[in-house]
Structures are given as structure tokens and as C-alpha cells.
Amino acid sequence: QVQLVESGGGLVQPGGSLRLSCVASGSGFSLYAMGWYRQAPGKQRELVAIITSGGSTNYVDSAKGRFTISRDNAKNTVYLQINSLKPEDTAVYYCNANTGIRVYWGQGTQVTVSS
Questions:
Q1: Residue 61, Ramachandran bin (φ over 0: left; ψ between -120 and 50: alpha; else beta)
Q2: What's the pLDDT score for residue 110?
Q3: Would you say 79 and 72 are in contact if contact means Cβ atoms under 8 Å apart?
Q4: Pairing status of strand 109-113 against strand 10-12
Q5: In 66-98, which positions are buried (b, 16+ CB within 10 angstroms) versus exposed (e)?
Q6: How many CB atoms sit inside 10 A of residue 113's CB?
Q7: How high is the pLDDT of residue 62?
Q8: Which one-letter DSSP state was computed for residue 8?
Q9: Distances (CA, A) of 53 to 34, 71, 98, 106
Q10: What's the whole-number mean pLDDT along residues 47-57?
Q11: Residues 6+ apart with CB under 8 A from 56
Q12: How many alpha carbons lie under 13 Å from residue 44 in its C-beta half-sphere?
């Protein structure tokens, strides 16, 4: 069982930045592929970015340039840095861990971009 706890969301003005964090329980974190997803009101959950156990990253086209995913295996933590925030980035952001056997989700953290 892997528990994921996201933090770092909040209300931010357009053009601002946020760094989301997701802390995983257990000792296997370094072996997991980690991902960030988001779900805007009335829309389906969508992938934002993933990072493999080896540190390779992939982003959906809409996230390239403003989003950066990273991980700190010593802290069991994956991050999502979001710059130049736009109102359309408003969503609940979820952390995801893929152990190769099972996928785990966090409870999400709300990001609201508004002036």
C-alpha cells in the first residue's frame, strides 16, 4: 500500500507560480514511475506530466514550457513546478504512483488561478 499526500495548491493570480509536492509512503518510491494529473470542473482527469524511476520526463503538449516535474528520492517526493499560471490551469491536481503492479492516487490539491 502506497499513500500519497499532495500539497502546495492554492489561489494564485494569473502569471504567478506554484510548486506542488506529493509525498509517498513506504520504501519503494525510487522504483515508481510518478505522475501528475489534473481535473478541471466538468472535465475528465488528464495527464500533465510523468517522471520515470530513472528520472526521464514526459509532458503533454499543453504542459510543455510552463510545467516541470521532478523528484527527490531521498524525500520520497515528486514535485510539479507551474509557472506563468493561467485561469485555464484551474483544477484539482492529483499525484499518481505506478509501482508496476498497481496504481495509487493521492487525494488531490486545488489550484485556482484568478485575479
A1: alpha
A2: 98
A3: yes
A4: parallel
A5: ebbbebeeeebbbbbebeebeeebbbbbbbbbb
A6: 20
A7: 87
A8: -
A9: 8, 9, 10, 18
A10: 97
A11: none
A12: 2
pLDDT in tens, 5-32: 999 999 999 999 999 999 999 999 999 9
- Quickly tell me which residue has 501528475 as its cell: 36
d(CA 34, CA 17): 21
For 25, counting Cβ atoms within 10 Å of its Cβ (0-12 exposed, 13-18 middle, 19+ buried), the class is middle
Three-class SS of 17-57: CEEEEEEECCCCHHHCEEEEEEECCCCCCEEEEEECCCCCE
The full length of the chain comes to 115
Is residue 88 scored above 90 in pLDDT?
yes
User: Which helix (H) or strand (E) is 91 found in, with range?
Assistant: strand 91-98
Residue type, 15: G
